[in-house]
Design a protein that fits this description.
479 residues; alpha/beta; Aldehyde Dehydrogenase, Chain A, domain 1; Aldehyde Dehydrogenase, Chain A, domain 2; 2 domains; seven-stranded mixed beta sheet; six-stranded mixed beta sheet; 15 helices; 23 strands; 23% strand; binds nicotinamide-adenine-dinucleotide
Length: 479
């Protein structure tokens, strides 16, 4: 008999209209639990509860908000091993990354506890005599938060924490594949007794719960992270009823390796960015662009590095790369191996299903060489442990290839030249640029986000988060 996990609506734990089973991708016989799924009526109830609570929460003291967020942060930090293990069991990233993600979530809550104390405005002179001008920030009201499966606690944290810090009520819809971590986070938040309706958890289908959030006039702002396809739909729905929205979507992130690069740094950046967390990161490296003087040595060394990596059960301490998250993503990875071969790329290494002691979605990390930037494997987001390597004749050509994509989340360069590092940072059309660092791996106190089809709307994280979670009022007074 599996324990049931309910939704949290208006300060009450409420049974769903149906349930789903959450399964460990490292061991398909391991059922993590049964999780309730809300229907459209329950989603509507959650939105109504949030609406009702939003006025008082918007007027709550910054001390109340600080105390709530700081308490949640402390709880997450103190339970990082336990929650990290749950996250790893559910999503399949290795244990150190699961624990690391929970620690990050805890730190994010603490950061925004501090930000709640620092909400500020401006007082300016008027161009008219005897008039004062004051610019202040106010909450949006109710924020709908829709998140993907690949960072089951960090992404919810970097949306929920600022939403609450700036005085908004929250309706949180996690991805269907990772209800356990979302539920554990909701449980922690609920245990701090925020006023009923200030925080609501509605697990369930995107097509049901997600759609209710998109369509409801009770939602004032939508913060979405997920695929480009869903993001486009979120944008259209939000524009239809003039709700504020913010989108973080896919990537096809380039890592440029120049002739003068330190080979060890180049290989480590490429390996970590492409294959850690099974390549299932929006910031993963998926196109490596190498110049002729280093290309062959680099490719050889990268293959050796990948051969030395252990693919296996994410909970085992010697595992470097966990399984793919589910069957449909696994099939997508296999399909892209066929697509790449079909369009003439050279599958130099990997790309096969792997058998392990437990039945899971194990995939051999794959390296394609002789890739052209116009091939589908170089243009479409694969979201798996598959990297493509493209040759470029010069720094200038590698920069052009790096920018030649519909996406613009993050871009990296490995070089010992200050001139090329500076030029790359300046000319890259990505929202985040890395020099001698993997494309994946960011700080939590600075803005996160991209350009082009990777992001839309204000940046997330750091003090920039205020741009989305507040609205500005300009007040004129003749005293
Ligand atoms: P997805 O678009 O399938 O789902 C994202 C969320 O949207 C889920 O909660 C899903 O249930 C919900 N959803 C689906 N249909 C909906 C609808 N009609 N209305 C409302 N909500 C709906 O994405 P995914 O597969 O969960 O995540 C992988 C994607 O997320 C990748 O493209 C990845 O690049 C992207 N991602 C981006 C970032 C970033 O910050 N840029 C971070 C992590 C992941």
């Amino acid at each position: 008999m599996t324990e049931s996990h309910q939704n949290y609506i208006g300060g009450e734990w409420v049974s769903g209209a149906s349930t789903s089973l959450d399964v460990n991708p490292s061991d398909l016989s391991d059922v993590i639990g049964e999780y309730d799924r809300a229907d459209a009526d329950q989603a509507t109830r959650a939105i109504a509860a949030a609406k009702e609570a939003s006025v008082a929460w918007g007027h709550s003291t910054i001390q109340d908000r600080f105390d709530l967020l700081d308490g949640i942060g402390t709880a997450l930090l103190s339970r990082s091993e336990e929650l990290g293990t749950l996250l790893t069991r559910e999503e399949g990233k290795v244990l150190r990354d699961g624990v690391g993600e929970v620690l990050r979530a805890g730190r994010i809550f603490k950061f925004f506890a501090g930000e709640a104390l620092r909400v500020s405005g401006e007082k300016l002179s008027s161009v008219r005599p005897g008039v004062e001008v004051e610019v202040s920030r106010e909450p949006l009201g109710v924020v709908g938060i829709i998140t993907p499966w690949n960072f089951p606690i960090a992404i919810p944290a970097w949306k929920i924490a600022p939403a609450l810090a700036y005085g908004n009520a929250v309706v949180f819809k996690p991805a269907d594949l990772v209800p356990a971590t979302a539920w554990a986070l909701a449980r922690i938040i609920a245990d701090f007794n925020p006023p009923p309706g200030v925080f609501n958890l509605v697990m369930g289908r995107g097509s049901v719960v997600g759609e209710s959030i998109l369509k409801s006039p009770g939602i004032n702002g939508i913060s979405f992270t997920g695929s480009l396809e869903t993001g486009r739909h979120v944008a259209m729905s939000a524009v239809e009823r003039m709700a504020k929205f913010q989108l973080e979507m896919g990537g096809k992130n380039p890592l440029v390796i120049l002739d003068d690069a330190d080979l060890d740094i180049a290989v480590e950046c490429a390996y970590q960015g492409s294959f850690e967390q099974t390549g299932q990161r929006c910031t993963a490296t998926s196109r490596i662009i190498a110049t002729p003087g280093i290309h062959d040595h680099f490719v050889e060394a990268l293959v050796e590095r990948v051969k030395g990596a252990t693919v296996g059960d994410a909970l085992q301490p010697d595992t470097d790369i966990g399984p793919v998250v589910d069957e449909s993503q696994f099939e997508q990875d296999l399909r892209y191996i066929e697509i790449g071969q079909g369009e003439g790329a050279n599958l130099l290494y990997g790309g096969r299903p792997l058998v392990r002691i437990t039945r899971g979605h194990y995939f051999e990390p794959a390296i394609f060489t002789d890739v052209h930037n116009d091939m589908r494997v170089a243009r479409e987001e694969i979201f798996g442990p598959i990297v493509t390597i493209i040759r470029a004749a010069s720094f200038e050509e590698s920069l052009t290839v790096a920018n030649d994509t519909q996406f613009g989340l993050v871009a990296g360069v490995v070089t010992t030249s200050l001139k090329y590092a500076s030029a790359f940072r300046r000319e890259s059309q990505a929202g985040m640029v890395m020099v001698n660092l993997p494309t994946a791996g960011v700080d939590y106190h600075v803005p996160f986000g991209g350009r082009k089809a990777s992001s839309h709307g204000p940046r997330e994280q750091g003090s920039y988060a205020a741009e989305f979670y507040t609205t500005v009022k300009t007040g004129y007074t003749r005293p």
